[in-house]
Amino acid sequence: MEDAVRLQHVNKTYKDFAISDLSFTVKKGYVTGFIGPNGAGKTTIIKLMLNLINQDSGIIQVFGEDYTTNINEKKQRIGFIYADHHLYQHLTIKKMKKVIAQFYKKWDDTLFDSYVNRLQLPWDKKIVNLSKGMGTKLSIAIALSHHAELLILDEPTSGLDPISRREILDLLAEVMQDEEKTIFFSTHITSDLEQIADYITFIHEGKLLLSDNKESITEQYGLVRGPVDLLDDDIRTLFVNVRETAIGFEGLTNQAALIRRLMGDHVVIERASLEDIMVYTIGNP
Ligand SMILES: Nc1ncnc2c1ncn2[C@@H]1O[C@H](COP(=O)(O)OP(=O)(O)OP(=O)(O)O)[C@@H](O)[C@H]1O
After folding, report:
1. Name one GO molecular function term (predicted).
2. Among the four residues 98, 133, 239, 251, which has the most C-beta atoms within 10 Å?
């Protein structure tokens, strides 16, 4: 399977933070959800992918080559969606369209008009005055109208009400009907990804914790409940983290099949949500 983006052993050090030996791929034709708590390094990694900052070492390839090779062509093929950041803040959508259309070889004016109308974006409002949800929708409409193949979204649903969130997720799901498109989507709202992601990449403190397809993660992980007296030292090694209460334990395992074989009759094993995986892996559940 072709990769839209590939990171190999990437390092980037700031004074108080480092991306360390990070390797993962973004598969072409799929939605990859990029999760991690505040300050995990998601935006830094997105900036590295887009060549907005440079890595100290390691290799980053976009569409199979270094970003700077055929850079203009790459910019045509990528749509970067970031709710708080817009060019042309003081133009109306109508005026911005005229400016931006010149930059993109594949710009489709009719398609853009249809998105603006359908998403009920106000043609005559200055971009600076758009709400957060409208700004995100506008960015997506722009990316789709220049036929971007790779959409990179930095927390597109954060701070949005459930209706706007749903509209954006529906729009992205619609985009994915086109099998040539790839979406890389950072968020800490893991429930968004339960709906639309095919792959999950999970980072914490600049390090990779998990990068796999969602079905494998669902099979591998489980939330287990049972009596505390079952937890001997060997059994504990099968858990990522365990919470003990007066009535029993609840723990996250990444060896659900083995737990089922060993303890199946004595415990209850449920599907672990992405939120469970995040909380148990990095926090104190
Ligand atoms: N230019 C910079 N100089 C120094 N430190 C930086 C710089 N940019 C980011 N950082 C630090 O890198 C760390 C990761 O930040 P980043 O914005 O990548 O995290 P994030 O996962 O996107 O967080 P959030 O979910 O809160 O948006 C933070 O500690 C941040 O302060």
Report:
1. ATP binding
2. 251
Determine the Cα angle at 43 with ends 146 and 164, to 5°. Answer: 60
Distances (CA, A) of 4 to 64, 78, 178, 190, 208: 7, 10, 15, 22, 18
Token pair recorded at residue 13? 């050090």
Residues 35, 39, 41, 46, Cα dihedral to 10°: 80
- Collapsing DSSP to helix, strand or coil, 175 comes out as helix
Hey, which of 11, 12, 14 would you mutate to test ligand 1's pocket, going by the most ligand atoms within 8 Å of its Cβ?
14
Find the DSSP H helices in 3-82. 42-49, 71-77
Torsion region of 147: left, alpha or beta (phi above 0 gives left; psi -120 to 50 gives alpha):
left
- What residues form DSSP beta bridges with 150? 78, 182
Residue closest by Cα to atom 17 of ligand 1: 43
Mutate to test the pocket of ligand 1, among 44, 184, 187, 278 (most ligand atoms within 8 A of CB): 44
Q: Global pTM? A: 0.91
Ligand 1 atom closest to Cα of 36?
21
Taking the C-alpha atoms of residue 208 and residue 20, their distance in angstroms, rounded to an integer, is 8
Nearest to 36 by CA among 24, 53, 54: 24
Place of tokens 């970003």: 67
Angle, CA 138 vertex, CA 185 and CA 118 arms, to 5°: 110
For 114-172, write each residue's pLDDT tens digit: 999 999 999 999 999 998 888 889 999 999 999 999 999 999 888 888 998 898 899 99
User: Which tokens belong to 23?
Assistant: 């390797």
